[in-house]
Amino acid sequence: MNKIKLLTNGLIKENPVLVLVLGTCPALAVTTSVFNALGMGLATTFVLLMSNMLISMLKNVIPDKVRIPSFILVIATFVSIVDLVIQGFIPALSASLGIFIPLIVVNCIVLGRAEAFASKNSVFDSILDGIGMGIGFTFAISIIAFFRELLGSGAIFSHKIIPFDGILVFVLAPGAFIVYGFTIAAVKWLQKS
Amino acid sequence: MEYILMIIGAILVNNIILAQFLGICPFLGVSNKISTAVGMGAAVVFVMTLATLATSIVNTYILMPFNLLFLQTIAFILVIASLVQMVEIILKKISPPLYQALGIFLPLITTNCAVLGVAILVTQKFSTNIFDSVIYAISVAIGFTLAITIFAGLREQMDLVNIPKGMKGVPIALITAGILALAFMGFAGLV
Amino acid sequence: MGKKESSLLQLILSLTIITCIAAIALSIVYLITKEPIENSQQKKKNDAIAQVLPDFKGETKEQKILIEGDKDSVAVYVAYQDNILYGAAVETYTDLAFSGRFSIMVGFDNEGNIIETQVLQANETPGLGDKIDKEKDDFPNQFIGKNPTQLAVKLKKDGGEIDAITAATISSHAFCDAVQRASNAFLIIKQNQDE
Alpha carbon C179 to chain centroid distance? Predict the structure, then answer.
């Protein structure tokens, strides 16, 4: 099995947000600015990587019947760790992501990869898959955030680059749905051509 | 009066899907038909109410007194996951018709972030007031049902319409959701 | 996959072990991060106090005030200069906000005039309700110099003199509520002082 393929799989061909349409809640909620999206993406990548690794290590120890609760426990532990670390060391990020950090637990991508990939594959492959999916997720939500911040406030990373006030609706809830929709359409179009 | 405002606010103004972005997965996933959307909505009302009741009790009588708030996420997800399992088993035994109607949606609800989201939100919003928390959870769940049902209705119509090829499926659904969210913003003046 | 059927004991055992390990790991991380979290919260508070009482140098004394009919108490950081009341920074909150509770710090001089306000924690809608932050909009500057202990701060539509933020009346109303709560708490401190 080609190892590089494992890594790039999540990036483009099976991008969790843009192709599989998983993890949609954070993709809409935290994409008001690129800074938030990157922070969320990295936090999720860490959780994905660690839970994929641990679950593939434990896959022969955990009885089949209690598989899902055990996965949820492992994931919840890593999410809480990330939550505490962000609160302690990056308070600004914790203030702007708020409730969406604990909600990584129920991000379908994490549990989905644990069940579909990590519980069946070797530790090394699972790590690669976790990194690939995590980067794919980060990449996708950063793109959505890029367009929302640019159109909504004329800025990137809070630096004004277009001298206009922005079209407010793109920062608000409706804009999130619309930008997300157009991004998926664009990806579909790119894949075809 | 305060409660009426809170209920209207949670259903229309601060709609959980269209304004707070929680529970988007089922919103997109099971909204192809009105009948399934209503079923999902009913299951969410049922589970969210019970789950919020259980998690507020855990929060007020276990986590807060022992200063264990850092275990909140893990405790809540465990409570919700076991609650969903329990509901499934009990329903199967005592009310097979209800199980037939709601059964297939129940496993999906564990990973519905709206349930965990509301459980965490109410601890921030109402602290230890369990009664208020449950009332709020019910209103939020009704808002969820309302949004998903309207959306399913729109999507049923959309199947019959000629849409540009690239926009078919998820993209047009998301854009429709955006316009729906825009319409719901009009309710902001209500409260 | 030909996994063996596990006994109930095995199921319980494996779940218990995982839970225990999870709890231990979390406790360790909690202990490590406890101090930085407290420090960063303390620092945020101190910064906010310094911002709303810009000319005051020195230590403030913390006092908790519970106003009748309120759910939670507010923290008042009373500032004394040469044993005379200089003013106070009040950490106040409101439950009337658009999305959850928000908390702000309000600075008062010794007469109860507002010196400055600072948002501590808020989840208001970006682009609308988040204009309660003075870095984003002029809205909070309307409060500077007002004395809510004598004349309640209210929006124009409620008969007051504050212009609401366009399309964010709820947040504006909530902000007035928070400021008024702060002022009421300050008044209690001041009255205790005078006795």
Answer: 11
